[in-house]
Amino acid sequence: MSKIKNIHALEILDSRGTPTVEVILTTDDDIRVNAKIPSGASTGQNEALELRDGDTSRYFGKGVLKAVANVNGPLFKLLKGKSIFDQQALDSLMIKEDGTEYKSNFGANAILGISLAIAKAAAVSKKLPLYKYLGEIQDKKATLLPCPMMNIINGGLHGDNMLDFQEFMIRPKGAKNFKESLRYGAEIFHTLKKILKDKKLSTSVGDEGGFAPNLSSDEESLALIVEAIQKAGYEPKKDITIALDPAASEFFDKEKNSYFEMKKKLANQDYKYRSVEDQIKHLENLTKKFPIDSIEDGLSENDWDGWAKLTKDLGKKIQLVGDDLFVTNTKFLKKGIEKHVANAILIKLNQIGTLTETIQAIDLAHQNGYRCVISHRSAETEDTFIADFAVATRAGQIKTGSLSRSERIAKYNRLLEIEEELKDKAEFFKDL
Ligand code: PGA
Ligand code: ZN
Predict the structure, then answer these.
(1) 9 — alpha (psi -120 to 50), left (phi > 0) or beta?
(2) Structural domain contains residue 368
(3) Each residue of 262-315: pLDDT tens digit?
(4) Measuring from each residue's beta carbon to the nearest atom of ligand 1, which residues come in under 6 Å?
(5) Domain encompassing residue 115
């Protein structure tokens, strides 16, 4: 029983209104599940391939009909009749059949859709909530609710403003449980909205639901966040800390080995360069001035020497998260471990393309004392897989956007449901 009867994909839209893949999987005992795949904007250069059609007569070339056809044709043929409980074996089979390092034959969007649908079907078949099933296959107690990193100011490629840094997030580390952490976040979000309004700044939101006011400096943005934390009745540092994702790969010039003012450059204004040393100093100064205790991609994926220096200088004091740098890939994480680079990894399922490989990256991280942050993408869908996955992996941290936009809130609401269901078994991440 519970063998794959049918796998069918279709082209749907993500939260940016761009096509993405949905996979519907049915079994011989009438289980029916679906999985919907997110998509990034500031993608790492070593991510698994997101297969797009390139046919400019549809969706400006961004259609995913080729990926859909790969699911409905060769991948379905490969997996038909197989047991949904063999997650690892089925993921390996797809990887092998694809035969390329970056899944460029079938597309990671096609393969991941099936991989996640298999896990969801297995959970239904076992009559387990998804987080419990995902915990079971890793031999982990799926009871640890993650501390959310809520992205309340959006810049970089996610916000139509002059901020070079992509994400300004708040972490309610002083909350006693997930429910309270979300309340802290929402109250600060609304307080920030009022502050922006009073200053006649825009309160429209960016891709991940954070505000994207036309501020001109990162410091201005951080000062506003601190003001919002205090006005909402919380104590910066004790109750709430700040996490940054500059997404610095986007504003690194490899030839010049320097960082540049990206938004000024994009707006055809005069722009300046900053050396690697100065960029590290800049980050360090920000951590001295503001209650920042986590920085993701503070340097570029092409600046490994800079990363090693950054880790030496700041790695004992704060969390340094590799996103573009590691792309959820054990190959790059291993390099990071060897070179003493970063102390945490961002985990995005679609950077690598199967559930099994994602779990391998998490295991490798945990075995080497690296923390894990489970993450959404800037274009999401209503699929809440990562909420269950965050609890099941005992990652302890999740970043899934701000306190607006339903594709972000859906994940938070799912975590509320899980916490409610776990009752007094629910734990909340403390060690930040
Ligand atoms: P992306 O951004 O989903 O657009 O790649 C998210 C991130 O950089 O963390
Ligand atoms: Zn990032």
Answers:
(1) beta
(2) yes
(3) 999 999 999 999 999 999 999 999 999 999 999 999 999 999 999 999 999 999
(4) 40-43, 166, 245, 247, 323, 375, 377-378
(5) 4-127
Contact 138, 125 (CB under 8 A): no
Tell me the mean pLDDT per 10 residues along the chain, length 432. 96 98 98 98 96 98 98 98 98 98 98 99 98 98 98 92 96 97 98 98 94 93 98 98 98 97 95 97 98 98 98 98 98 98 98 98 98 98 98 98 98 98 94 61
**Residue to mutate, 166, 207, 294, ligand 1, most ligand atoms under 8 Å from C-beta:** 166
**Among residues 348, 357, 380, 399, which one is catalytic?**
348
Q: Is 380 a catalytic residue?
A: no
Q: How far from 339 is each of 114, 233, 278, 332, 336, CA to CA, in Å?
A: 35, 42, 21, 11, 5
Residue 399 CA: which ligand 1 atom is closest? 9
Q: What pLDDT sits at residue 430?
A: 76
The secondary structure of 219-268 as a DSSP string is HHHHHHHHHHHHHTT--BTTTBEEEEE--GGGGEETTTTEEE-HHHHHTT
Distance 323 CA to ligand 1 centre (A): 8
* Average pLDDT across the chain, whole number: 97
Same domain for 298 and 242: yes
Instruction: Name the domain count of the chain.
Output: 2
Does residue 31 share a domain with residue 154?
no
Ligand 1 centroid distance, CA of 324 (Å): 8
Is 348 among the catalytic positions? yes
Separation of alpha carbons 258 and 272, rounded Å: 10
Atom number, ligand 1, closest to the C-alpha of residue 297: 8
Tell me which of 151, 348, 386, 399 to substitute to probe ligand 1's pocket, judged by most ligand atoms within 8 Å of the beta carbon. Answer: 348
